[in-house]
């Protein structure tokens, strides 16, 4: 094989390898929240409170549960039960609607919030969440609160 043919074969082999590498399915990157390590399940901090689930959710509350899982659960835990050492439970008397209005949740999501009830540190703004999504998250959290005697 002459040098030109050999070079052409090598170039084609490299191109095929590159296309193959780029076309392979890859696992999505782990979901992380700013400042939180990607922990194995056995190292995830336990919930801070036990949350009783309502018998059913409205369609808006179901959408809120999905949005909560996407934007909030990494810190605030499954069903807003909090995570020891990371973020407080939202199913807690401190977040009673008369003390933390729905608008307070909107402000916290949009601008973040300075720590004032707990010692977890400040909450950063939540990137990528819309006001409409926060509204459904609030509906979900309020349903959880009602099911746990916080009205």
TrEMBL record:
User: Is-annotated flag, keyword DNA repair?
Assistant: no
Q: Keywords on this record?
A: Heme, Iron, Metal-binding
Give the Cytochrome c domain ranges.
59-145
Q: Which Pfam families match?
A: Cytochrom_C
SUPFAM superfamilies according to UniProt = Cytochrome c
Gene Ontology terms for molecular function: electron transfer activity; heme binding; metal ion binding
Q: Does the keyword Cytoplasm apply?
A: no
Entry protein name:
Cytochrome C oxidase, cbb3-type, subunit III
Organism name: Gemmobacter megaterium
Q: What is the lineage of its organism?
A: Bacteria, Pseudomonadati, Pseudomonadota, Alphaproteobacteria, Rhodobacterales
């Amino acid at each position: 094989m002459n040098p030109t043919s050999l070079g052409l074969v090598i170039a084609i082999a490299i191109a095929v390898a590159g296309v193959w590498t780029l076309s392979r399915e890859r696992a999505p990157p782990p979901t992380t929240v700013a400042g939180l390590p990607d922990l194995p399940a056995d190292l995830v901090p336990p919930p801070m409170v036990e949350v009783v689930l309502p018998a059913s959710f409205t369609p808006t509350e179901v959408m809120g549960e999905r949005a909560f899982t996407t934007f909030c659960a990494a810190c605030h835990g499954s069903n807003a039960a909090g995570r020891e050492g990371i973020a407080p439970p939202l199913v807690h008397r401190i977040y009673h609607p008369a003390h933390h209005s729905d608008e307070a949740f909107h402000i916290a999501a949009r601008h973040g919030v300075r720590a004032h009830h707990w010692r977890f540190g400040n909450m950063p703004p939540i990137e990528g969440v819309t006001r409409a999504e926060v509204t459904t998250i609030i509906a979900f959290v309020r349903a959880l609160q009602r099911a746990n005697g916080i009205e």
